[in-house]
User: Fold this.
Amino acid sequence: MSSTSPATEPEQNTELAVEQAAVADLYRRLDANREHAVYRFKQALAMPAINPQALGEREAAASFQTQRITALDAAEHGLVIGRLDREEQPQPLYIGRVGLPADDPGGDPALVDWRAPASRPFYTATPFRPEGVVRRRHIRTRGRTVSAVNDEVLSIDAATAGDGPALTGEAALMAALTAERTGRMTDIVATIQAEQDAIIRSDARGVLVVQGGPGTGKTAVALHRAAYLLYTHRERLGRSGLLVVGPTPTFLSYIADVLPSLGETGVLLAGLGQLRPGLDARGTESPETAEVKGRLAMVDVLTAAVRDRQTLGRGVRELVIDGVRISLRPADLTRARTAGRRASRQHNLGRPAFARAVADLVTERYVGRIGADVRGGETLLDRRDVDALRSEVLGDPAVRRLVDELWPTLTPEELVGDLLTSADRIRRATKNWTDEDRALLLRTDGTAWTPADVPLLEEADELLGYDDSAERAAEARRQRRERAEAQDTLDMLHGSRSTDLEDDEEGEELTAGDLLDAESLAARNAEVDYRTTAERAAADRTWTFGHVVVDEAQELSAMTWRLLVRRCPTRSMTVVGDLAQTGSLAGAQAWGEALRPSVGDAHWRLAELTVNYRTPAEIMAVAAAVLEAGGAQTAAPRSVRSTGVPPTQEKVAEAELPGRVAEVAAELAGLGGTVAVIVPPSRLAATLDAVRSELPAAQAGADADSRRAPVVLVPGEAKGLEFDSVVLVDPCAVLAEGVRGYSDLYVALTRSTQRLAVVHPGELPEELSGLVPV
Ligand SMILES: Nc1ncnc2c1ncn2[C@@H]1O[C@H](COP(=O)(O)OP(=O)(O)OP(=O)(O)O)[C@@H](O)[C@H]1O
Assistant:
């Protein structure tokens, strides 16, 4: 590995002074760039929008400058990350959060954006592959003041020193890893490691699956990759948008600061319950029900449920039109239904054809009854009469009622809601299913939508379609009206021009009509959509994203994968997760199996992360034993640091358990930093009560925020999060109560960055024998 060059104190001071001067200069440039961007922004706003094109240019220029100002603002904290000294290059290259131009446009920039290709060696150069770098310097700052510099000399001599994992910028990395947690994830641009950098900069095409154990930086890497892709494909992703999917709202608030701190604000973050615009599905249900709803077989169930709504019944239907009784036999209606199904594979779009076919039938019968020429049996009505009659029949209330009954217009909510609340409908839609599975599908309590319902509603959208012909016709009418009004305005202006001009002057007078035609005047008056790409995407169900990032992807069901691929048909995705942490029954056991049905075998590639940056080695040793006992196929990641503090265990009597847990939580809270108490679900209420008696502000549930107070969570809620101290309660119950008990225990054990205390009433699982009794 590379070495940190030993420096005497005076040398250190000189280096600090050198970097202070450089950093001060870069901050001056940041200020100047910001001022310039604000000036250009104001200038853009002042641009006269004389036609739609100018209006568009003005909006584009203003939005470009807004983005630049946001990025420059975000770079204020920790602007400069470090510098590279390169072979045969007299000037060092400074690396930072944003790029800043130099005075001489022909040379290196004054500061290179961390995402630019020139920055890459800062993360990847090693003594064995120095990439032209002789020294890498990490610069740490507090405010605008340089607080430390750490050098690595990339020489082969240095390469033989040390035997730990090859780390980039070890001192800066260790400082970041041992820092107290704030309850919010922070960015890692200053200390990205080589294996992480390779993933961050990997090609945007196809599905990149990142498998890594707890604490290997999957979330961090996924978010930095999002920032990298936005930088590299700014224009394309600026238009199509980037979606980040996380498991829960708590997790999303935990990661919410990272992209803005990297200057990226236009990304849509959504939990699994928020993937349908306009819906925040927070209902709960049993893991078994969620698993059934997540199966791909639900596509067939929903298809059958739609067909079940096109049922014609067995008897003859009688209608009375203008006093004339008309009978429709099942065979007649079957023909009409075939016409509807042929017209569209989507239920709502097939309905007009069904309605027309019914109207045709009724008209035919009606004409047969009233128009028959008694002499020759031919109809007395001509074609025009018959057409007029057909339109009337279509609008006849009796016909409309029949069509509504036999082929109702359906919303996805109606289709899925009616299905899940009717045992009969479920039975009819689930051929060959067991009664147990059918019973799981039946919603017996409450009406709240759950995250597992979201893909069903989206699938229903596809099956039902949305008949927007009326809206399109209204929009066309609106546009015609606006053009006509604009033309009137122009005519009026033309009519009112001055009439006392001499003949030869008349030709020189410009009228509004010479500058604008009715179409562009109407367009100028049309409302401009000022929403950002992310806002527009959030409101539009048919939006397709340029890239999708999925975190904790091991939890996704087959139906959710289907939904995501529909949202990102190009399959440009970054998918990060850990098969050893799968907690849901519908989740993945193998990436290939999970991805095959929706993504396809040829469209994904695997990358792995192997180093754990969160959990100290002492805790990880215990967690690794649990991983092995659970029969996981993946190896435990190697911890990058140890604290010298062993994780502890304490056995207490059942009756004293909640009280003792509360005391331990309070002791750990006294040490500072964030604290979580992780409990099996059956102990949640009692533990929360007890913890609140010691720590009244303690929080629990989906909105628990460890920034404010200690939190009490079940393992599933703790997924993806981390805390300085963790109290784990009754691990035997965690194993017994989880549908994947070993995964839950593994997750719970790997949340701590510093201290872990296990408190239990009975025996400990054998795998936890590495814990030290207190
Ligand atoms: N290169 C790095 N420099 C500094 N900190 C890092 C680095 N990589 C990861 N970390 C830190 O390690 C911790 C764990 O990272 P992260 O939460 O991304 O891991 P994960 O693989 O998603 O974990 P889990 O599977 O448990 O969700 C975070 O605090 C993160 O900031």
